């Protein structure tokens, strides 16, 4: 079970068949992959911090999934989870990340100079631009498994590092449990405040334990760079601003991340990263870059076009409502972001967003003018 | 099953981790043990001193928070039961659910029978507070399932619409719902339905597994008000009781639909005897007979219920220790319920009122759920007698008010007999 290791000794009193979960009603990545044989092979293993295969899969057992949406059904409790349980996680990663093989190498590129253009997305259509990712501090357990002491230590280290940021990155930390009513209202108005998770996908993995202990929000004075501490991951880092200057957003993103990483290193800490999986995060869906770069963009005509879905697919983009994942678009305004996370670098993914959104806006303008967009149809990236 | 609770594991070996931190030894007030790396298979994780792990309970209002001082936490935090259940696991639900300013929840659960012993340092004061002064160290709990001792118990059907008695039972040797593995939970199911299959006569019945039930069966169980659903209350989900739902959960009931057993919901079993009308005596007779039969049947296979002389029947939540018994009626009291003395009368009779939807519901149309307040320190017979005597008194009051006569607040009855 998460945050304890009751199970492993106890489970070994029973044979694998007796412990194997009933996945007959399930439709998630874990259920597709976890055979009885695989479970039998993995059940007596644990990571050095005591995370077991049953801990990995609990959320997937408790949440059978939706017939049309394929959830992952697994989480990592620490960095070593991805190694100790690679037999389970590698095929899931391959399926979720477009065929990414256990031998593939992931490229990290946080040099904003490598991004071409991106500073001129039409603000009449592109209302806001945003890039987010996550980071984990090496040597600490991840949110499903960490103890209160660890979570507080992660908070302490993060607050210390963020406190050393200066210039346009200088900011302030708001611990969730100490926040005043005014601070809370301001953060809500700024759309910065995150709440205790309610999704059973997250709750079943143990990530919401001890809420709101050790959780908080840091943001710079300009309100363009934001860090969530101890929500779904150790750190979620967000750069955002109104308008279409994705280049500026991405530059601040890279500068901020690089600076934070340096500050951690000065104190003898580093981020979880390896050349195969890139940045290591709690959910396998966020491996690699953990990056979602996107815009809120007005596409009332294009979104009604029969080829809209196909265009997005070819551009390797995904649409969401402006409330985030699983919300519907309102007033023709969509959240358009990269579909991929792993196997492409940060620059490559943001480039796809920049180039793709530019094209979508051009198409929207054509349709507004009553013209065809057939000559603009992109190739599959 | 030989009981193993005598073997109490003393403090977990403190193991440090490889120094992954830089040269500085103190970081933000925490320190890490730097013993050598242990062999693979042993669990190695960052160990912080209890003071760094102690939960922030300043905004909390539950029994656990009232009694879990840093000193108590420090003393118990590195102990585990033989099955590996820890203090942090036991209190997780109370940490995650600070409570309501007016309702005081318990805030902790047991993961196995040994939890009550290994973590007695926190369970005992919690039990004492919740059970109005019952001291597990010095007091013995009486168990009495001899229904023949009941006097009266036939209520006026004009007022009492239904009668019900419920309790829970745990199978010794298997972990409780917050901690059990899937195999253990399936074993509980197997042991219990095996025993229930041996019931005969008016107790003969059928089991409906939650995973296998058909749509028709489900609808029938809903119509009978028998079907229980996956817990949504965070008090329960934070304790881990809803894991692997609906695996190994189910409902058994006799053909006459007067005796019902829930398997693997909040406890290993919840046993319910009920009928329309006011024949509480018969409901309790069936309750005792059914429980004793089931106990006999599991003993034939070498199993027994968790029980000891201080805590009575052991259940997941400390609030259900002792008898785990709630005996109650749905009763219509249109005049009495509007009398300002009603709460005090209930109090003195050691009764509690709820709406007819169960705990935390409001009464509808003057019909109340009236049941015993106490669980521990009095026997089943004593508690049911209390309900019988009390409800009779309430009905008498209602009749007096009907006739325009005045009523009296009864003297408070003593709690521990």
Main attributes of the structure:
heterodimer, A: 381 residues, alpha+beta, Transferase Creatine Kinase, Chain A, domain 1, Creatine Kinase, Chain A, domain 2, 2 domains, eight-stranded antiparallel β-sheet, two-stranded antiparallel ribbon, 13 helices, globular, B: 417 residues, two-stranded antiparallel sheet, 10 strands, 29% helix, disordered N terminus, ATP-guanido_PTrfase_N_sf (chain A), EC 2.7.3.2 (chain A), creatine kinase (chain A)
Structure described in brief:
Chain A is an alpha+beta fold. Chain A contains 13 helices and 10 strands.
Care to describe what's here?
The complex is a heterodimer of chains A (381) and B (417). In chain A, 33% of the residues lie in helices and 14% in strands. Chain A is globular. Chain A is built from 13 helices and ten strands. In chain A, β3 (216-220) and β4 form a beta hairpin. The longest helix of chain A has 23 residues, at 346-368. Chain A has two domains: 8-97, ATP:guanido phosphotransferase, N-terminal domain (Transferase Creatine Kinase, Chain A, domain 1); 112-369, Creatine Kinase, Chain A, domain 2. Chain B folds into two domains: 50-131, ATP:guanido phosphotransferase, N-terminal domain (Transferase Creatine Kinase, Chain A, domain 1, Orthogonal Bundle), CATH 1.10.135.10; 147-403, Creatine Kinase, Chain A, domain 2 (2-Layer Sandwich), CATH 3.30.590.10. Chain B is globular and about 70 Å long. The longest helix of chain B is centred in the last third of the chain and has 23 residues, at 380-402. In chain B, a hairpin with a 4-residue loop joins β3 and β4 (259-263). In chain B, α7 (182-196) packs across α10. Chains A and B meet through α1, α5 and α8 of A and α4 and α7 of B.
């Amino acid at each position: 079970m998460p945050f304890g290791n009751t199970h492993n000794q106890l489970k070994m009193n029973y044979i694998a068949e007796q412990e194997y979960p009933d996945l007959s009603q399930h439709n998630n990545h874990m259920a597709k992959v976890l055979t009885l044989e695989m479970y039998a092979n993995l059940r007596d293993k644990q990571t050095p911090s005591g995370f077991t295969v049953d801990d990995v899969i609990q959320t997937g057992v408790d949440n059978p999934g939706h017939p049309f949406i394929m959830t992952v059904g697994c989480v990592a409790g620490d960095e070593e989870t991805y190694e100790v349980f690679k037999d389970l996680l590698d095929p899931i990663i391959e399926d979720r990340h477009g065929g990414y093989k256990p031998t593939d190498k992931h490229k990290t590129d946080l040099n904003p100079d490598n991004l071409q253009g991106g500073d001129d997305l039409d603000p009449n259509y592109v209302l806001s631009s945003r890039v987010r990712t996550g980071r984990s501090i090496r040597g600490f357990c991840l949110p499903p498994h960490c103890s209160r002491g660890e979570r507080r230590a992660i908070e302490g280290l993060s607050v210390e590092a963020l406190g050393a940021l200066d210039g346009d990155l200088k900011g302030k930390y708001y611990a969730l449990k100490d926040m005043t009513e005014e601070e809370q209202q301001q953060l809500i108005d700024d759309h910065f405040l995150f709440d205790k998770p309610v999704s059973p996908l997250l709750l079943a993995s143990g990530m919401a334990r001890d809420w709101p202990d050790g959780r908080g929000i840091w943001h710079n004075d300009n309100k363009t760079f934001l860090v969530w501490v101890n929500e779904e991951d150790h750190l979620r880092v967000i750069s955002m601003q109104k308008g279409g200057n994705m280049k500026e957003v991405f530059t601040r993103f890279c500068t901020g991340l690089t600076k934070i990483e340096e500050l951690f290193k000065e104190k003898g800490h580093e981020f979880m990263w390896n050349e195969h999986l890139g940045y290591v995060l709690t959910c396998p869906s966020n491996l690699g870059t953990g990056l979602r770069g996107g815009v809120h963009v007005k596409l009332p005509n294009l979104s009604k076009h029969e080829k809209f879905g196909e265009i997005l697919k070819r551009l390797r983009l995904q649409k969401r409502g402006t409330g985030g994942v699983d919300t519907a678009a309102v007033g023709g305004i969509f959240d358009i972001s990269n579909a991929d996370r792993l196997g492409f670098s940060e620059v490559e993914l943001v480039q796809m967003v920049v180039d793709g959104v530019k094209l979508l806006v051009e198409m929207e303008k054509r349709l507004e003018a009553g013209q065809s967009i057939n000559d603009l149809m992109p190739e599959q990236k | 099953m030989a009981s193993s609770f005598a073997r109490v594991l003393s403090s977990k070996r403190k193991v440090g981790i490889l120094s992954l931190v830089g040269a500085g030894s103190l970081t933000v007030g925490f320190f890490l043990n730097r013993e050598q790396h242990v062999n693979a298979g042993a669990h190695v994780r960052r160990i912080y001193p209890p003071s760094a792990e102690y939960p922030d309970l300043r905004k909390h209002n539950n029994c656990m928070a009232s009694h879990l001082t840093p000193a108590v936490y420090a003393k118990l935090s590195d102990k585990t039961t033989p099955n590996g259940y820890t203090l942090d696991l036991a209190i997780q639900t109370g940490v995650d659910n600070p409570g309501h300013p007016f309702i005081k929840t318990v805030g902790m659960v047991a993961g196995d029978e040994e939890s009550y012993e290994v973590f007695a340092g926190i369970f005992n004061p919690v039990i004492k507070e919740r059970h109005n002064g019952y001291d597990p160290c010095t007091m013995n709990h009486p168990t009495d399932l001899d229904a023949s001792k009941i006097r009266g118990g036939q209520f006026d059907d004009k007022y009492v619409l239904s009668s019900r008695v419920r309790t829970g039972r745990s199978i010794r040797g298997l972990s409780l719902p917050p901690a059990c593995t899937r195999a253990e939970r399936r074993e509980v199911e197997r042991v219990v339905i095996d025993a229930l299959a041996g019931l005969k006569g008016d107790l003969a019945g059928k089991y409906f597994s939650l995973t296998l039930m058909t749509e028709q069966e489900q609808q029938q169980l809903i119509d009978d008000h028998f079907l229980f659903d996956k817990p949504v209350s965070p008090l329960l989900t934070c304790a881990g009781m809803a894991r692997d739902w609906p695996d190994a959960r189910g409902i058994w009931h006799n053909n006459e639909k007067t005796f019902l057993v829930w398997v693997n919901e909040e406890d290993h079993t919840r046993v319910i005897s009920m009928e329309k009308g006011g024949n509480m005596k018969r409901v309790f007779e069936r309750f005792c007979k059914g429980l004793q039969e089931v106990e006999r049947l599991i003993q034939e296979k070498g199993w027994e219920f968790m029980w000891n002389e201080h805590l009575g029947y052991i259940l997941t939540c400390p609030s259900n220790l002792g008898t785990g018994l709630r005996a109650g009626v749905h009763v219509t009291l249109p005049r009495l319920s509007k009398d300002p003395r009603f709460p005090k009368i209930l109090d003195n009779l050691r009764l509690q009122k709820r709406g007819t939807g169960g705990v935390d519901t409001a009464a509808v149309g003057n019909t109340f759920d009236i049941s015993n307040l106490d669980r521990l320190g009095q026997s089943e017979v004593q508690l049911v007698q209390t309900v019988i005597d009390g409800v009779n008194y309430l009905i008498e009051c209602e009749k007096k008010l009907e006739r325009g006569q005045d009523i009296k607040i009864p003297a408070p009855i003593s709690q521990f007999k």
